[in-house]
Design brief:
The chain has 216 residues and is an alpha/beta fold. It is built from nine helices and five strands; from the N terminus they run ββααβααβαβαααα. A five-stranded mixed beta sheet has the order 3-2-1-4-5.
């Protein structure tokens, strides 16, 4: 029996892409993954996540990743993008001849909308579970969370090498806010790694508008 888990990393930050990962594992390996230490990526150190990432890849029958950059997020709805990624992961699995018997999704909101959107794609009798904090309850979702988190973290480090240290990229991070303010104060345009539609970014933009800006 094949079990599919889906989770994301980077839904909330104002900098960087959102990564959505789907991982399919044979049911007989779920206990193995749990014993090895697979759990919610937020509860693991970066070193542990990287090590367990390789374990997940080794035991997975199928790994699917979708990345959404800020310019796509800015003109869409992040929940809709998440649903689109889930649907793509299921369609791709079917195209590869894989038929998951159970699907588990971690979701912070729009649970019923996700269920409705996925259900119409399913073939045969498939158990579908969409829950808040599913990554804490289901090993296969925790595995997906590790894949998404590791790939996003590595991409963030790549961006920092280009744009400088902007911290975690989250609105709650003072270093991130200082970095955005420094860019705005310098008179430069915000780089494409910033989600311009985020309220925090708009607020900072208004704060740093000059008189010349208002007269344009």
């Amino acid at each position: 029996m094949l079990v599919l888990g889906v989770d994301e990393a980077g839904r909330g930050p104002l900098i960087g892409d959102m990564f959505v990962a789907a991982v399919a594992v044979l049911n007989e390996y779920l206990d193995v993954l749990a014993d090895i230490g697979i759990r919610d990526s937020k509860k693991l150190s970066p070193t542990a996540r990287r090590r367990l990432f390789n374990v997940v890849i080794h035991y997975s029958k199928y790994v699917f990743v979708r990345r959404f950059p800020p310019d796509v997020i800015d003109v869409s709805n992040i929940s809709s993008l998440f649903i689109d990624a889930i649907r793509s992961s299921i369609r791709t699995a079917y195209a590869l001849g894989l038929r998951p018997s159970e699907i588990y999704v971690d979701s912070t909101s729009n649970t019923q909308k996700i269920i409705d959107s996925i259900s119409e794609l399913l073939r045969g009798d498939v158990k579908l579970v969409v829950e808040y904090k599913a990554d804490e309850k289901y090993v296969v979702v925790a595995a997906a969370s590790i894949v998404a988190k590791v790939l996003r973290d590595e991409y963030i480090e790549y961006l920092k090498a280009i744009y400088g240290d902007f911290g975690s990229g989250y609105p709650s991070d003072p270093r991130t806010i200082r970095w955005v303010e420094e860019v705005l104060t310098s008179g430069s345009d915000l780089p494409p790694i910033v989600r311009r539609s985020w309220k925090t970014v708009k607020k900072l933009g208004r704060k740093h508008r000059t008189l010349e800006d208002y007269l344009k």
